[in-house]
């Protein structure tokens, strides 16, 4: 899993003891090796699994996965109390790391993907509703005559007769290919 936050978001910048030497980011779910060096759980596990030898990334002393320990509560508390800004543009939220996860889930400035097929835009959640309505990839049903589906983009060029003929032609070639 990638980090949910970036080291630049922290105000003030976190002290080096709270930075993981593997990912250079603020420790996430930290664990301690026998040599007392601390890394993110996922970073050190990956390092030990993929590296040529099982050694600490910092001091090169031997480390085994089973010897990894959860850090003292004090360190976790220090991390939880770090202040950081929300990563979403336009949002002025700034609180502790402990509250960050809960905030990003509900942040009004978080970007969500448009659900319409063919549209690859992401939008701040508070303007997604308006976009979904106006999105040219929104599918609508013709209320004139044919009742066929088309996207908002195709509305001005939609012609019931042509649409039905195209559909029939498609069916025809489908049957011919059988
Ligand atoms: Zn890390
Ligand atoms: Zn070490
Ligand atoms: Zn936010
Ligand atoms: Zn869209
Ligand atoms: Zn029509």
TrEMBL record:
Keywords: Metal-binding, Zinc, Zinc-finger
InterPro entries given in the database record: Znf_RING, Znf_RING/FYVE/PHD, Znf_RING_CS, Znf_TRAF
Molecular functions (GO terms): zinc ion binding
Highest rank taxon of the organism: Eukaryota
Zinc finger (TRAF-type): 102-151
PROSITE patterns reported for this sequence: ZF_RING_1, ZF_RING_2, ZF_TRAF
Residue stretches making up the TRAF-type domain: 102-151
All residue ranges annotated as the RING-type domain in the record: 20-60
Pfam families cross-referenced by the UniProt entry: zf-C3HC4_2
Identification of the protein by name: RING-type domain-containing protein
Species in which this protein is naturally found: Capitella teleta (Polychaete worm)
């Amino acid at each position: 899993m990638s980090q949910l936050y970036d080291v630049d978001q922290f105000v003030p910048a976190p002290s080096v003891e709270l930075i993981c030497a593997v990912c250079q980011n603020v420790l996430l779910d930290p664990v301690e090796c026998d040599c007392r060096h601390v890394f993110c759980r996922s970073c050190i596990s990956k390092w030990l699994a993929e590296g040529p030898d099982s050694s600490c990334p910092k001091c090169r002393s031997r480390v085994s996965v089973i010897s990894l320990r959860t850090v003292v509560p004090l360190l976790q508390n220090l991390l939880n109390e770090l202040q950081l800004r929300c990563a979403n543009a336009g949002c002025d939220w700034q609180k502790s790391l402990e509250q960050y996860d809960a905030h990003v889930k509900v942040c009004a400035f978080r970007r969500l993907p448009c659900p319409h097929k063919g549209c690859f835009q992401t939008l701040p959640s508070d303007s997604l509703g308006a976009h979904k309505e106006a999105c040219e990839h929104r599918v609508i049903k013709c209320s004139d005559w044919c009742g066929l589906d088309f996207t908002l983009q195709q509305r001005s060029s939609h012609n019931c007769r042509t649409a039905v003929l195209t559909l029939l032609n498609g069916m025809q070639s489908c049957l011919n290919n059988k």
